[in-house]
Design goal:
The chain has 233 residues and is an alpha/beta fold. Helix 4 crosses helix 5. It folds into 3 domains: 60 residues, 2,3-Dihydroxybiphenyl 1,2-Dioxygenase, domain 1 (Roll), CATH 3.10.180; 76 residues, 2,3-Dihydroxybiphenyl 1,2-Dioxygenase, domain 1, CATH 3.10.180.10; 57 residues. Strand 2 and strand 3 form a beta hairpin. The strands form 3 sheets. Strands 1-4-3-2 form a 4-stranded mixed beta sheet, with helices on one face. Strands 5-9-8 form a 3-stranded mixed beta sheet, with helices on one face. Strands 6-7 form a two-stranded antiparallel ribbon.
Length: 233
């Protein structure tokens, strides 16, 4: 009996681009997210019954859309929308500086997003310093809840391979390396002997992903302290 072999089809690209958010006051919501530093992509109102506002977190591939006549979801019904950050403390400090009411850093007693326990949230960073395990939370004016999740390194297989290589010109790379060396100088003077490239790598990665020099330095410091166990002098 002849067996027919079915070729496995290549998966079609499907990128999560937009999350629809329910809000009660469009202008208030727009002002809140603009204050976070999010990019305003569109604000269109072709009729009295319809208005759509699209905004995108800094360096994010996904956006939010809210408005009038856009969604039927009740304002504030979105819960635990996740924003991945390199450094949860730095991200929290940025929100506080923007006058956002944000929680203290916490971790889940039963593991990320596990709300089955009586007291699922425990104050403080994950004791083991693991990527994916430390959080902070805040709400928009309607009560839509956002979670900051610290991801310092991704588990194997958690990133899609890029089909395009984006080259950095020599002048730009030289400038970025010079900046990295200047920021590494403080860490080198205040910490025990270590391999400079272990600090450079997370700093360069963070800067290329859109972090500020201060955020990148904080992420590199934390990685060295927690992963490579480089103590202060």
């Amino acid at each position: 009996m002849e067996t027919t072999k079915i070729a496995k089809a290549e998966s079609v690209d499907m990128k999560l681009e937009v999350v629809l958010l329910g809000v009660s006051d469009v202008d208030r919501a727009k002002a809140f997210y603009e204050n976070l530093g999010w990019r305003l992509d569109i604000d269109i109102a072709p009729s009295e019954d319809y208005r759509a506002v699209q905004m995108t977190p800094h360096n994010s591939g996904a956006s939010i859309i809210f408005g009038k006549g856009v969604v039927s979801a009740a304002p504030g019904s979105a819960h635990s929308l996740v924003l991945a950050v390199d450094d949860v403390d730095a991200a929290r400090d940025d929100l506080v500086a923007r006058s956002v009411d944000v929680s203290d850093v916490f971790h889940y007693a039963g593991g990320p997003f596990n709300n089955t326990l009586e007291n699922p949230r425990v104050g403080g960073r994950d004791p083991e310093g693991r990527s994916y395990f430390s959080f902070a939370s805040f709400e928009d004016p309607d009560g839509n809840v956002w979670l900051l999740q610290e991801i310092t390194s991704r588990l194997p297989g958690r990133e899609w391979e890029s089909t395009r290589t984006q080259a950095t010109d020599a002048a730009t790379l030289a400038e970025l390396l010079h900046e990295t060396a200047e920021h590494h100088d403080h860490f080198e003077k205040t910490h025990a002997e270590h391999n400079w490239w272990d600090w450079y790598a997370p700093y360069l990665s963070a800067r290329q992903q859109g972090s500020s020099p201060e955020e990148a330095a904080a992420a590199a410091d934390r990685r060295m302290d927690e992963v490579f166990h480089v103590p202060p002098r």
